[in-house]
Design a protein that fits this description.
binds S-adenosylmethionine; alpha/beta
Length: 242
């Protein structure tokens, strides 16, 4: 499917350096900008992983570890690894894990989703929330997710999208294009939230992104729009090649 939305590779911030600059304010900004709905989206992402009690789970672009925490809370015996290139975001995450007493169950490692330091078939679930948009070579990261996920495992990708639809779509688009950059710049004192708006507009429509997932070795099980398409939840498993 084609779209009038421009695809702009220059808005991908793959190194994590940009996130180092906003790490200390990231959680507060997330809650305010998403009007609190981001944690509900994360809970749906955890459910989509359909984890067993002793699952081993990898959360990519884990940032300050909110999704890794939600995964660990959902399965008290799960073993969770969070990976991110931003040392600043991981430091905030580590302090949170220590406060919550979760540091023994969640380990946070510095790394890049495009080159995972893990063996094939080593996780029951692999997740990435609001992260794939920032990865410079998305097919490479998706192929890595397929590689490290066990054949019976699940991959869950939560990502923001360009809100569509004629009823509440215009309101959601106003929020993304006007409220988010203004509020973000005001609260963070930085221009980084202009990047957020641009990177959302540059991300492919959900049907197109699902095709990229298929071409990268994932069998797409469902694509669910959340909150008028402000976000989409993509659920997949590694494809079995015949
Ligand atoms: C918007 S934050 C999302 C953090 C977290 N997943 C959440 O739900 O709040 C995006 C994260 O993507 C990370 N990132 C950027 N490039 C990456 C890459 N190549 N591989 C893995 N993570 C990356 C950034 O460092 C940042 O922490």
């Amino acid at each position: 499917m084609t779209s009038a939305i421009p695809h702009d590779d220059s808005v991908r911030g793959g190194s994590g350096a940009m996130f180092d600059r906003i790490a200390s304010r990231y959680d507060m900004l997330n809650r305010v900008i998403s009007l609190g709905v981001d944690q509900g989206w994360r809970r749906r992402t955890v459910r989509a992983l359909a984890l067993g009690p002793e699952a081993r789970v990898l959360d990519l672009a884990t940032g300050t570890a909110d999704l890794a925490i939600a995964i660990a809370k959902s399965q008290p015996h799960a073993d969770v690894v969070g990976l991110d290139p931003s040392v600043g975001m991981l430091d905030v995450g580590r302090a949170k894990l220590a406060r919550m007493g979760l540091d023994a169950r969640i380990s946070l490692v510095e790394g890049d989703a495009m080159a995972l330091p893990f063996e094939d078939d080593s996780f029951d679930g692999v997740s990435i929330a609001f992260g794939i948009r920032n990865v410079p070579d998305r097919p490479k990261a998706l192929a890595e997710m397929a590689r490290v996920t066990r054949p019976s495992g699940r991959v869950a990708i939560l990502e923001l999208g360009e809100p569509r639809g004629s009823v509440l779509g215009p309101l959601a688009r106003f929020h993304v294009h006007r409220v988010v950059p203004t509020l973000g710049a005001w609260l963070s004192g930085a221009g980084e939230y202009r990047y957020l708006e641009k990177s959302i507009a540059a991300f492919p429509p959900s049907e197109e992104f699902a095709d990229v997932m298929r071409e990268s070795g994932l069998d797409v099980l469902s694509v669910q729009p959340l909150t008028f398409g402000v976000a989409n939840l993509y659920v997949a498993r590694p494809a079995v090649w015949s």
